[in-house]
Design brief:
Layout: H1 15-22, E1 24-27, E2 30-33, H2 44-50, H3 55-66, H4 79-84, H5 88-105, E3 110-119, E4 129-138, E5 148-155, H6 173-190, E6 198-204, H7 207-210, H8 212-223, E7 227-234, E8 249-253, H9 263-272, H10 279-293, E9 299-303, H11 314-320, E10 325-330, E11 343-345, E12 348-350, H12 359-378, E13 384-389, E14 397-402, E15 409-418, E16 426-429, E17 435-438, E18 445-453, E19 465-467
Parallel strand pairs: 5-6, 5-7, 7-10, 8-9, 13-19
Antiparallel strand pairs: 1-2, 3-4, 4-6, 8-10, 11-12, 13-14, 14-17, 15-16, 15-18
Bound molecules: zinc ion.
Amino acid sequence: MLYFRKAIYRPVADAALLLATIGVVTIGSSTQSDKSEPAFAADPQIAAALQQISAQRIQANIEKLVSFGTRSTISPQDPASIAAGRGIGAAREWIKSEFERYSKDCGGCMEVNTDAFTQEPAERIPKATEITNVYAVMKGTDAANAKRIVLVTGHYDSRNSDTFNVSDDAPGANDDGSGTAVSLECARVLSKMKFPATIIFLTVAGEEQGLNGSHHFAKMAKDAGWDLEAVLNNDIVGGDKSAEQDHSVVRVFSEGVPTAATEQDLRRIRGLGGESDSGSRELARYIADVGRAYEVGVKPMLVFRLDRFLRGGDHYSFNQQGFTAVRFTEYREDFHHQHQNVRTENGIEYGDLPKFVDYDYVARVARLNAATLASLASAPAPPANVRILTKNLENDTTLTWEASPRGLVAEYEVVWRATTSPQWEHAQSVGNATTATMKLSKDNVIFAVRAVGRAVHRSLPVVPVPER
Ligand SMILES: [Zn+2]
């Protein structure tokens, strides 16, 4: 279990790093001492917005989703079923109307879209089925940065004991009414603010049938060349009220070696120890920083693997297309309450019912998501083409990068950690430069560079690629 309670950037008892804390960093012609600053400060406006996230609203939304009986992707979606309020079609129409209502409340600040396609028969799709993802786009207010996108998602489809059963109830309160409610509540609250970059609030279908909805959406984003910087997938964040539940933490799963790595990437990763520096892993670390900066009431517990044993999720669809994506899931799942027909057997209650969901917990997870989305959408783009110069054998380390595209930058920071450390341990401001020489050997630590905005916001850090 990887769970870090200690404050970040504590000096560690490592000779090389100790040297760094007393050493001098050369930045062009000027020098400054290492401050080893704490990671993030909270933005008061974001902190205030987080207070608007409501457990009551989340409860109402989850109960509404459950009221559709089943949200199986292969359940009815004809007009009569929609009118009767049963099946995935009715759920889809309701989600769409919720997003539209939030958009109306912010003067049309969001565009509500659907991504609908016909899924041909597959292992868990008996006949050609229309699958519809529903999403709201809150366009960034800065013309140059509006192309950058951060995204939150949950799956609104559900299932019971049998993937093909569309007649019995499949309440899906936790899996994944909770994640759907996180997307909705983030949309409602963040739509009252303005951000330079774009935020997309997504809900997908087809997850339980084989990640079909997210696969289609991620491929669409890839084919269209979207500048999608980060994806937060919330799946089973209901904080099931079982005895051994830990309501103070939420797991954040992230891939290590990228699913989409090329052979060349893999050679570099093997050679230089890059197994724990995928974009998704950096996003997980960023979420840990956000969790320390804002009082959200739940601690991200980073799990350094793609997902749980035997399980998958929609973040993987994005990873497959080369996007940075992580998964949030409650600390301990109760498997009696997932993928089960609602029933009682030998005194055990089965089924994914609202009464097992801790709505305050979902609200805390939603706050962590909203703080992450707001931070990334306020921050400058990460620096481009970050390089570590390896022309000569030397004990200093020179890093170069191209200015963070599209403005918003005040300065850059070099961060680093011991190769054995899970999280960034040191941060050094290097001013508004595009090169920095660190009095620290690249052989001993892992470096990255991030952009810092005019306020407190940091971009995701970028690990350099060697350049001879
Ligand atoms: Zn799920």
